[in-house]
Specification:
two-stranded antiparallel sheet, six-stranded parallel sheet, alpha/beta
């Protein structure tokens, strides 16, 4: 029997009042029903990462962050769009690791006024530099259609197929890339 892959669902925001935990839990519920991997929420806020370049790098959160990433075979990024890009917190977290990202796959679930599409495209460029293979299927959630009052996540049913397609691609690529590590 083949060992299941470990896939981290990374919450890309740390701000007060964020909705990424709601989106992440929704993705995890869908993923867990598949039964094809071990899925877990990875909240970058839990690691208390300092801003890159403002520290000597000895904070325990930095080592814990890299260790967590090293133990994952793939990722699903929950990405919110801020000023046509990803959050500063997510960029900082991406930059605090290097090898731990290499030769792994990632899917992106984005949200914003245009479904977070511009943030996702920005993230794809960063993924390439970190040797993360981003998959094509990309669920995009609208702040206007999938959230009530901008705070209560109520996804439309049509997103289920897109999330499953994205997860399938993440699984295929994560398994293939594991052979390189």
């Amino acid at each position: 029997m083949t060992e299941k892959l470990n896939i981290g669902i990374i919450l890309g925001s740390t701000r007060q009042g964020r909705v990424s935990p709601q989106v992440g839990e929704w993705v995890k519920e869908i993923a867990d029903k598949r039964g094809d991997a071990n899925y877990e929420i990875v909240d970058i806020a839990d690691f208390n990462l300092p801003f890159l370049g403002t520290t000597d790098g000895t904070e325990p959160g930095i080592a814990a962050w890299n260790e967590k990433l090293a133990n994952l075979d793939g990722f699903v990024f929950i990405v919110q769009e801020y000023n046509h890009s990803i959050t500063g917190a997510l960029k900082n977290a991406l930059d605090f690791a290097r090898e731990a990202w290499n030769n792994k796959a990632a899917g992106i679930v984005s949200y914003g006024s245009t479904g977070g599409a511009r943030a996702a495209e920005h993230l794809r460029g960063i993924c390439g530099e970190l040797k993360i293979a981003d998959v094509r299927a990309h669920p995009t959630l609208s702040l206007f259609l999938d959230f009530e009052n901008g705070t209560d996540f109520k996804p439309q049913a049509l997103h289920l197929d897109n999330v499953n397609a994205m997860l399938g691609e993440v699984m295929e690529w994560s398994g293939a890339l594991k052979t390189l590590r």
